Amino acid sequence: MLSEKEVLSTLEMVRNENLDVRTVTLGISLHDCISDNLQRFKDKVYTKILRTGGRFVSVCDEVGRTYGIDVVNKRISVSPVALVGAAFSREELVEVAHTLNQAAKDLDIDFIGGFTALVEKGMTSADEALIQAIPHALQSTERVCASVNVASSRAGINMDGVSMMGRCIKETAEHSADRDGLSCAKMCVFANIPQDVPFMAGAYLGTGEPDAVINVGVSGPGVVKMAVERALAKDPRMSFGGLSEVIKKTAFKVTRVGELIGREVARDLDVPFGIVDLSLAPTPNVGDSVGEIFQSLGLESIGVPGSTALLALLNDAVKKGGAFASSHVGGLSGSFIPVSEDLNIAKAAEEGSLSLEKLEAMTSVCSVGLDMVALPGGTSAETVAAIIADEIALGVVNRKTTAARLIPVPGKGAGERAVFGGLLGESTIVPVSGSGCSDGFMRHGGRIPAPVQSLVN
């Protein structure tokens, strides 16, 4: 139970420090919808989503009003479509995406995830069909999100899958060229993807999950920033150990809030509660930035020397606070550094403090990876794939989740601006050194073997 002092401090976080429940995500299994008849499959999928999620939005709103805490996004994740829709062609899978999109619209859901393939060790014909369907599926829907897991620490890196995703991203960007490649923002390429991610674009319902489950994602970069500034106002020379304790205790409170909301929603819907994911997920709003935490701790901006060490401290303290607060911490949990979605990080990229190379180094210690990074539109599919491979290798070797959400902006070059709008923000397009030099490398194909760390049996 929270003490009276903790309750008051939590209310202050909500009122003045941008604390919110960033997403409540309802996972729905589609395994009982499987059919080799497309129309029957689509009908069963639509019916199950509406039956299971019919009260979802209203319950989230009611619980939010009861506790005075906004539930910003209500989302649904479903079983990997490449698995449950394995009988269908690329064109038929696009129709499945339209069915998912219509269900999300009718339920007033922000996004629906699960247009997903898991290809870390190889690809079935169904996986290939789904990946080929992604560009048109994302261009022709507003709420469908896609994810592809191309590697794991136990299996290694499927370089054929990585190469295919490089081409997929380029094609997806071209399909939404009039919106700066916006469709790419709804797609993520993973290593070690968790089965219970509540955040988009990576959310899907894993095969080991219940028939329906509630997962919660809580965010609070503004809360952490204010806690750090209050601590430094009392002791300007506070040690890094002391700062870690401050962040850890703050993360504890935020996680408790998220679990409370999630359990209430799950109870009212009569479905199991899954996990709470505490991730410092910023928005383009002032005061809701991960980058501002770096400045509060003495760095000129994110990306300058010291940034990787500081991000490691921040990520570790957030995870420890969350783990102590709840026995059901999952998803990603830590700190995101999405370039366009964080006003401060986007500014660092614009000023040149944050390069693609420094960003990649920082992703070795953050929650996810190269997130919402705008690339020159002329970047080749092979170079995009090689950037993905570098990022994925960090996750495989370090046994952590990493991902890439890259947007090669059609018709624009380094230094120009890409504008995505809303929570996706805008950003300067970062240069890619040696662009076009990766073609020969990507031709090798096959699988990069799992590292020796995988031999744990």
Structural overview:
The structure is a single chain. α3 crosses α9 (240-269). With 457 residues, this protein is α/β, with parallel strands linked by helices. Helices cover 44% and strands 18% of the residues. β4 and β5 (156-158) form a beta hairpin.
Summarize the structure.
The chain is α/β, with parallel strands linked by helices and 457 residues long.
Helix content: 40-55%
Low-pLDDT windows of residues: none
Strand content: 15-25%
End-to-end separation: 39 Å
**Total number of β-strand segments?**
14
- What value does the average pLDDT take? 90
The run of helices and strands is HEHHEHHEHEEHEEHHEHHEHHEHEEEHE
Radius of gyration: 21 Å
The largest β sheet comes out as: 12 strands, mixed
Shape: globular
Structural class: alpha/beta
Count every helix, treating DSSP H or I runs of 4 or more residues as helices.
15
Provide tags for this entry.
two-stranded antiparallel sheet; 15 helices; 14 strands
Write the layout of secondary structure elements.
Blueprint: H1 4-16, E1 20-28, H2 38-53, H3 56-67, E2 71-78, H4 81-84, H5 90-107, E3 111-118, H6 125-139, E4 144-152, E5 156-158, H7 159-175, E6 187-191, E7 212-219, H8 221-234, H9 240-269, E8 273-280, H10 290-296, H11 307-325, E9 334-335, H12 343-351, H13 356-362, E10 370-376, H14 381-398, E11 402-409, E12 417-419, E13 426-428, H15 439-442, E14 447-448
Parallel strand pairs: 1-2, 2-3, 3-4, 4-6, 7-8, 8-9, 10-11
Antiparallel strand pairs: 1-7, 4-5, 5-14, 6-11, 12-13
Helix pairs in contact: 2-5, 3-9, 5-6, 6-7, 7-14, 8-9, 8-10, 9-11
